[in-house]
Write a structure and sequence with these properties.
Strand content: 5-15%
Radius of gyration: 28 Å
Structural class: mainly alpha
Distance between the termini: 26 Å
Number of helices: 14
Shape: elongated
Length: 354
């Protein structure tokens, strides 16, 4: 194995990569999917109650509402501005606190409290905002609530849809950088005849594949880590996250090499990837629908790299808790690497015959 030749081919692929649309897509994909899935769908399925406040007397209620988690509070200057935003459903509700409101409540008076509700606000948000406001007013008056409420949670708390979509985004980042990029690079060199010309030199097929594999691992790791950072999903140690991502990129890239070695041209490569699409994507669905039997996901190879990323990066688990999954992923990678090497020898023989 000539390390210098591998390094030269790797540098060449990285230098020429930006000329390829697939290379550019691999760089853009994490940003695009984060914008589409996290911003659009995340805010659609997991909206925070939005409350607007016009405080004309520096009320304690405003300070307490602003400090609360789980509420989106906007402080406005004019009641007319508040009314227009509530009517336009930019806010779920709005309250106007007049001057001296706190003192009047403490004195036992009943001052007016204007509370406006948006016509298209969710019923759950209306209840949350109404009960919260009443409870804060009662706190000003110094009265205790008429009942004591004990909240008992049965089962595990469901994760927000925005969090459960992270494996989907990670999947596409790994597929674009780990599967498509090395596979398309290998096929492109076949089509242009540069691979056949390269193999008549002292360069060996194994060195070509190693250079392509390193390119996929580097870019796959970078894009997966960027995707996790964009989605604020790095709960554990950075070194642990990077390690599981490297293992994931290594497996994804071996699949890309298999596709590149097996495909004669670009049309065949896209056909193979399209045919394997559901098979590769299936494990990601089990994070979106956690009620499905989770053992089924274990039947798919990419489960063994998505699960460690989920546990370490999102759930904050340690490396020891995903040692089994990492071991299986490494074993699958080694087995597919042997298959890729065997197919590469057949490819070299075909190119020599041509």
């Amino acid at each position: 194995m000539n390390v210098k030749l591998v390094w030269r081919m790797l540098r060449k692929d990285l230098a020429l990569g930006p000329r390829s649309p697939i290379f550019l897509w691999a760089l853009v994909m994490p940003f695009a999917l984060t914008l589409i899935l996290q911003v659009a769908f995340g805010s659609l399925f997991d909206p925070e109650p939005r409350l607007g406040i016009v405080d004309q007397g520096d009320s304690q209620i405003t300070a307490e509402l602003t400090a609360m988690d789980g509420l989106s509070v906007t402080v406005l200057d004019e009641p007319d501005e508040l009314r227009s935003q509530v009517e336009a459903n930019d806010l779920d509700a709005g309250i106007v606190l007049p001057t001296g409101f706190d003192d009047a409540v403490r004195a036992g008076d009943k001052p007016d409290l204007e509370f406006w509700i948006g016509g298209e606000s969710l019923a759950a948000n209306r209840i949350i905002l109404t009960v919260t406001t009443i409870d804060l007013v009662r706190g000003l008056e110094g009265e205790e609530a008429p009942v004591a409420v004990e909240v008992v949670s049965f089962g595990e708390e469901g994760l927000p849809i925005a969090t459960r979509l992270i494996p989907v985004i990670i999947f596409f980042a790994l597929v674009m950088a780990g599967v498509f990029l090395p596979g398309s690079s290998l096929v492109e060199e076949k089509e242009h005849g540069t691979l056949a010309a390269l193999l008549v030199t002292p360069v060996r097929t194994s060195e070509v594949l190693l250079a392509k594999w390193l390119m996929g691992v580097l870019l796959g790791t970078a894009m997966a880590v960027v995707t996790l950072a964009l989605n604020r999903a790095v709960a554990g140690n950075w070194y642990a996250v990077v390690l599981v991502v490297i293992v994931a990129a290594a497996l994804a890239t071996v699949i890309g090499l298999l596709v590149g070695v097996a495909a004669r041209d670009s049309a065949m490569m896209f056909g193979i990837v399209k045919g394997m699409g559901l098979f590769l994507f299936a494990p990601s669905l089990f994070y979106i629908f956690p009620d499905w039997p989770q053992w089924i996901a274990m039947l798919f190879p990419l489960y063994w790299i998505i699960e460690p990323i989920w546990q370490v990066a999102v759930m904050g688990e340690t490396l020891s808790s995903v040692a089994l999954e990492l071991g299986v992923a490494i074993a699958i990678t080694a087995g597919l690497a042997v298959l890729a090497a065997w197919l590469a020898r057949r490819m070299q023989a075909q190119l020599a015959g041509a």
